[in-house]
Amino acid sequence: MFKKFLKLNILILVPALFAGIIFLCGFAKTVPYGVTVNGVPVGGKTYAQAAQAVRAEIVKGLDGKTLEIAGEKSVYEFSYPEISFKDDLRTELKSARRGSALNVRVSYYLCGLNEIARYICANESVPAVEPYAVFNKLGDPFTYVEGSDGRKADGEKLKADIINSLAGGFEKVTLSFDRVPRTKSMEEVRSQTCKLASFTTRFDGSNVNRSSNIRLAANYLSGTVLASGKTLSFNDIVGARVTSRGFLPAKIIENGEFTDGVGGGVCQVSTTLYNAALLSGLKIEEYHPHTLAVGYVPPSRDAMVSGDYYDLKICNTDDSPVYIRALTGKNSVTFEVYGKKGDAEYSLSSSVTENIEAEEEITRDPAKARVKKDGLKSEGYLTVTRGGYKKTVLLRKDKYLPVKGFKYEGEQTEPEPQPDGQPQNPTAEPQPSP
Fold this sequence. Notes:
Layout: H1 2-27, E1 36-37, E2 40-41, H2 47-62, E3 67-70, E4 75-78, E5 83-87, H3 89-94, E6 101-102, E7 106-110, H4 113-124, E8 132-135, E9 142-145, E10 150-153, H5 155-167, E11 173-174, E12 177-180, H6 186-191, E13 194-202, H7 208-221, E14 224-226, E15 231-233, H8 234-238, E16 249-254, E17 257-262, H9 266-279, E18 283-286, E19 313-315, E20 322-328, E21 332-339, E22 344-356, E23 360-363, E24 375-386, E25 389-400, E26 405-408
Parallel strand pairs: 1-6, 3-11, 23-26
Antiparallel strand pairs: 1-2, 3-4, 5-7, 8-9, 10-12, 13-21, 14-20, 15-19, 16-17, 18-19, 20-21, 22-24, 24-25
């Protein structure tokens, strides 16, 4: 079987080799005398020499010829050897007769046409810039940018124009574009940056430490953009309330008592944000009431934060972003919430359902004297108005502890004058300030 296969291959291979030898010998013959190709005399030359001479003249004719493509950003120029050529010289030489004046057809092409066209189009195309809003912490809430239409280079037309130019007189090619319009209008952008709600609480501006803590915490939160489906964590944004981060000692509530602690006043910031979020229709995922009632909001309207364990978390359940900024004045802090306006309006209310009477003891230590403060139980409500219909829902029920009073009874002495010239009142009620 192997011998038959070998014999068959030899029978096929020998005629093929013989034909190739004849072909090479034939091409090695000289061109008849008196023959010119495109005006180049090639008579008496071998076919290889003739082809080299004619093609050298074609390349020489390419010197100084440039294909220029004009885009919006750049001008692209191509010349030999990026521009090459094809000819029918082999066919013409085979048909040459003594004294023949032959003319070879030459066609020019750009090497890597498809890749070059793709590169130019990608470099020259400009995507549309959609109108957008820049959120500002100060001044106007938003700066609106109109955006611009884009352009897309026509790659197929570019390739056709290049081919036509090289087939003609290397005319300049100008890149054509299709307009890429913006898909969003400025009205749509503005509709997603409406003011949803704001809420303000007030504080004693003369209390320097507490005021500083309020401004610092509010500044951390201001400028927050809450994307659709995302949750804001007060503690994550504001961070630890420690002196190394600029927070100062001020009154806080601890174990049912008003006492000094670092970061006093931060709870007023979380409470203000809590109310603004509810009035904006945002979802409250976590909140905590104080153990004592505070004076800057009605009961069942507060939101205490402390350490890593007591947080305020707010979720954006809408399909567009929500923008939050804080504004602090001399004695007030305000949170504003912006976003896509829905079809509902929100309002908050609360009521005291029970009074918890505070105890009172007699003390002979004037420094310990203080007025008792009753505790209370309360409920908080959210009213939603949609299409002229109102629905009020119970948000929460809270219990605020009473503050035990100490009534001073003892020998009355004239109090020493204070630096401001006013006598000290040992029974003055501490102001709620967490």
